[in-house]
């Protein structure tokens, strides 16, 4: 990796960490609000969709096709085979250069 690529990766990692911390802070604050409702005024406690409006965007109502387990295993096997093939090729190239 070049120096610029390393810096870009460091910035990306920092951004990911900051996003996780921000997300955790928002969820903690929302949880504290809901606890306050539950303790002080449970009759007016908001429902799940009102408390977490972003859930509508995350939940897909469209049915998704289930992938059979054998296809997942086949894909994993092919991935491993490609890695082994690449490792053997690198070993052959290293032996040829010596």
Helix-strand category:
mainly alpha
Strand coverage percent = under 5%
Q: What proportion of the residues is helical, as a percent range?
A: over 70%
Tally of strands: 0
Uncertain spans: none
Report the oligomer.
Answer: single chain
End-to-end Cα distance, whole Å, is: 24 Å
Determine the number of helices (DSSP H or I, runs of at least 4 residues): 4
Q: Can you tell me the overall shape?
A: elongated
**Largest sheet properties:** none
Q: Which H/E pattern describes the elements?
A: HHHH
Q: How confident overall, as mean pLDDT?
A: 87
CA gyration radius, whole angstroms: 25 Å
Q: Describe it for me?
A:
The protein is mainly α. 77% of the residues lie in helices and 0% in strands. The chain has helices spanning 3-40, 48-51, 55-58, 69-97. The radius of gyration is 25 Å and the shape is elongated. The two termini are 24 Å apart. 0% of the residues are buried. The mean pLDDT is 87.
